[in-house]
Automatic annotation (TrEMBL):
K(+) 2 binds at K454, G457. Residues 15-476 form the Aldehyde dehydrogenase domain. InterPro entries: Ald_DH/histidinol_DH, Ald_DH_C, Ald_DH_CS_CYS, Ald_DH_CS_GLU, Ald_DH_N, Aldehyde_DH_dom, BADH. It comes from Aquibium carbonis. GO terms for biological process: glycine betaine biosynthetic process from choline. Binds 2 potassium ions per subunit. This is Betaine aldehyde dehydrogenase. It catalyses: betaine aldehyde + NAD(+) + H2O = glycine betaine + NADH + 2 H(+); betaine aldehyde + NADP(+) + H2O = glycine betaine + NADPH + 2 H(+). GO terms for molecular function: betaine-aldehyde dehydrogenase (NAD+) activity; metal ion binding. The gene is betB. K(+) 1 binds at I27, D93. The keyword Calcium does not apply.
Length: 487
């Protein structure tokens, strides 16, 4: 298996190598084999990328928004045309099942480019009547923005950050996760092919220190990070100390509340989606599944039956529903939490082991795992595991469910299943979360804002909100009479 890119970085419209950088191996998580070798960025590469972005940004910002949008929409079409090959690359990079990457990764990147490419032309300022004099506001680009990605949705992350940034007239330097460096390079090539001027979207590789160098660079105006809460604290502190704007898309331990009157099959489907998609490596996953007493037995019965039927195996096989975790370290972490769950006294209702898969012995697989009889203070109910491990907790009243759902430092997402319409909206209004679902889970189309509250983040991706987060307001006062000066 070979997925070697032409070079490690993409700067000013072309591939660039600097072999002086720390070597990085790209591993196919299903087998553990090395599929590409690249280098982390040296300080020289960081400098080249930021400078290319700075040099290109001014002319780009002066184009008509509709002209910038046209290029994004052309890139969106190219992403869709190449969906199959990009999905395969994403599967090699992440280990996620091809049946997922074919519908959820390049496709979601294309959606973002299409949405922002169209929406940007309707971003307007305000007019304020001051009784003769007047004022207006302009939404202007910030300048050079940094995107730092996580490893669960690499091309989607690169697109969700770059599309609104570019649409608003900014330039971007994007650093993918060190675990999944490949698909952002493919996106960069597509942008160039679609006509994006050189220097506007640059990709540099590396570990956290490269991200920190970018986030603290004096030329940079904004940093947008997707990552864990501890990384978010560090990057936000860096941005703050240099007075840069920041968007933080961080982790979660989100609640999913199933009321007695829910449609059972829909609720079970929602809970499975909320825990096992992308092998459980989704920031917004509803990993605390609160189930009301009256529906509990029936819900658990169907939940376990359907979870046991999940097909785990070769991610490139179109019939496979669940691939491996990203790497050995994450595998060890998730298996560690399964042991913690057992030791804490939770009941292992399903999974918990490492499946034996012929030919994939070197892969980082874990069975879809469900713990029942989980109580609120267990570590498996409080800490983000980022793997296919669901905790089921029992509850009796609506008030109790709300209070316990909110009893967490995180606030990324929440979901509820009920057929009681007033209750659905009443409960959602009380939940401390940035993104909520009623009678579904984890759908995040480009048209709607996505992001967290509390420790889960600051700012929003997608929707018109993202265009605001990648721009700044200029106020212009206009006098129409004489200057009344006392001097
Ligand atoms: P991570 O925090 O380890 O790394 C995220 C990125 O930050 C990587 O590119 C990494 O190299 C970089 N980084 C690390 N230290 C840095 C530093 N000091 N300065 C600058 N950059 C630094 O996260 P991960 O393990 O790649 O991803 C999993 C986490 O991301 C989970 O917590 C998950 O919930 C979260 N996540 C959040 C969202 C969201 O939109 N809210 C989406 C996906 C993942």
């Amino acid at each position: 298996m070979n997925a070697q890119p032409k070079a490690s970085h993409y700067i000013n419209g072309r591939f660039v190598e600097d072999e002086g950088g720390q070597p990085m191996e790209v591993i196919y998580p299903a087998t553990g084999e090395v599929i590409a070798r690249i280098h982390a960025a040296t300080p020289n590469i960081v400098e080249l990328a930021v400078e290319a972005a700075r040099a290109a940004q001014g002319a780009w910002a002066r184009l008509k928004p509709v002209e910038r949008g046209r290029i994004l929409r052309r890139a969106s079409d190219l992403l869709r045309e190449r969906n199959a090959e990009l999905a395969r690359l994403e599967t090699l990079d992440t280990g996620k099942a091809i049946q997922e990457t074919l519908v959820a990764d390049p496709a979601s990147a294309a959606d973002a480019l299409e949405f922002f490419g169209g929406a940007v032309a309707s971003v307007t300022g305000d007019y304020v009547d001051l009784g003769g004099p007047f004022a207006y506001t302009r939404r202007e680009a910030l300048g050079v923005c940094i995107g730092i990605g996580a490893w669960n949705y690499p091309i989607q992350g690169a697109a969700w950050k770059s599309a609104p940034a570019l649409a608003m007239g900014n330039a971007m330097v994007f650093k993918p996760s060190e675990n999944t460096p490949l698909s952002a390079l493919a996106l960069a090539e597509i942008y160039t092919e679609a006509g994006l001027p050189d220097g506007l979207f640059n990709v540099v590789q590396g570990f956290g220190e490269v991200g920190a160098a970018l986030a603290s660079h004096p030329i940079v105006a904004k940093v947008s990070l997707t990552g864990s809460v501890p990384t978010g604290r560090k990057v936000l502190a860096l941005a703050g100390s240099h007075m840069k704007q920041a968007t933080m898309e961080l982790g979660g331990k989100s609640p999913l509340i199933i009321f007695d009157d829910a449609d059972i099959e829909n609720a079970v489907g929602g809970a499975l989606l909320a825990n096992f998609y992308s092998t459980g490596q989704v920031c917004s996953n509803g990993t605390r599944v609160f189930v009301q007493d009256g529906i509990r037995e029936c819900f658990l019965d169907r939940l376990v039956t359907r979870a046991k039927a999940i097909r785990i195996g070769d991610p490139l096989d179109p019939d496979t529903q669940m691939g491996p975790l990203i790497n050995a370290q994450q595998h060890e972490k998730v298996m560690g939490y399964i042991e913690i769950g057992k030791a804490e006294g939770a009941t292992l209702a399903c999974g918990g082991g490492v499946p034996r898969l012929q030919g994939l012995e070197g892969g980082f697989f874990v069975e879809p795992t469900i713990f029942t009889d989980v109580v609120d203070d267990m570590r498996i109910a409080r800490e983000e595991i980022f793997g296919p491990v669901m905790s089921v907790l029992a509850f009796s009243t609506e008030e109790e469910a709300i209070e316990r759902a909110n009893d967490t430092e995180f606030g990324l997402s929440a979901g509820i299943f009920t057929r009681d319409l007033p209750r659905a909206h009443r409960v959602i209004a009380e939940l401390q979360a940035g993104t909520c679902w009623i009678n579904h889970y984890n759908l995040s189309p480009a048209e709607i804002p996505f992001g967290g509250v509390k420790q889960s983040g600051i700012g929003r991706e997608n929707s018109l909100a993202a265009l605001h987060h990648y721009s700044q307001l200029k106020t212009v006062y206009v006098e129409t009479g004489n200057v009344d000066s006392p001097y």
